[in-house]
Amino acid sequence: MLRRFALAVAPAAASLALAGPVLADNMPSADVDGGTRAYVPAELPQADRAVVRKSERRLYLMKGDSVVRSYKVALGLQPAGSKERAGDFRTPEGVYQLTRRNAHSDFFLSIQVSYPNAADIERARRNRWPVGGSIMVHGLPNNLRHPPDYYATADWTDGCIALSNADMVEFWLLSHDNMPIEIMP
Questions:
Q1: Strands 49-53 and 179-184, sheet pairing
Q2: For the domain bounded by 47-184, which CATH number is listed?
Q3: How far apart are CA 42 and CA 40, in angstroms?
Q4: Which one of 29, 93, 129, 153 is at 20 to 30 Å from 56 when CA atoms are compared?
Q5: Strands of 41-170, DSSP E
Q6: Contacts 24+ apart (CB under 8 A), 122-130
Q7: What's the pLDDT at 41?
Q8: What gap in Å lies between CA 55 and CA 75, rounded to an integer?
Q9: What mean pLDDT is predicted for residues 15-44?
């Protein structure tokens, strides 16, 4: 797993140098793939769930009742209300899982959210709407279409949950596959 992560993230991690260090300098390192050095955190707290509070524009990584980390997020272009159908630019609300990691997406790392769930599908079917999908937690676009300040101050996604690239690296490391994510108004 470490080798796969180091190979997938190493090229993009170089861009984080401008944003400052992500991991502490005193962490032990390990050789990966013929001399590539990857930092191996001695002890990273593993979260057991994520909670997004849309009204606060915050994502909280939780372990039990304790907040392990808190991140500022950007949401869909129409952040009020829950996603109802494809193309409404809303971020869904409900309980989902983090299902699939993609180190080669159009954004700096991405982790798929299991939208739509059964309730989402039923609501869309009842209203004869296309349900939509491809909701992710991700970093910035690999090809910026706006000045960097725009991404830090606006809701800009099509319905996803976006973090800064540095925060996305940490979220990637502290979360795990099939971890619950609760998205609240």
A1: parallel
A2: 2.40.440.10
A3: 6
A4: 129
A5: 49-53, 58-63, 66-72, 94-102, 110-113, 136-138, 161-162
A6: 123/84, 124/84, 124/85, 127/84, 127/85, 129/84, 129/85, 129/86, 130/85, 130/86, 130/87
A7: 57
A8: 10
A9: 46
- At 29, give phi and psi (nearest 5°): -125, 165
pLDDT in tens, 56-92: 999 999 999 999 999 999 999 999 999 999 999 999 9
Residues with Cβ < 8 Å from 98, sequence gap 6 or more?
50, 111, 112, 113, 114, 137, 175, 176, 177, 178, 179, 180, 181
Which part of the chain has CATH 2.40.440.10? 47-184
* CA dist., res. 12 & res. 154, Å (int): 23
Q: Cα(164)–Cα(20) distance, rounded to whole angstroms?
A: 12
Q: By three-state DSSP, how is residue 170 classified?
A: helix
Output the pTM of the full model.
0.77
Q: Crossing angle for the helix pair 2-13 and 165-174, nearest 10 degrees?
A: 180
* Cβ–Cβ < 8 Å for 96, 53: no
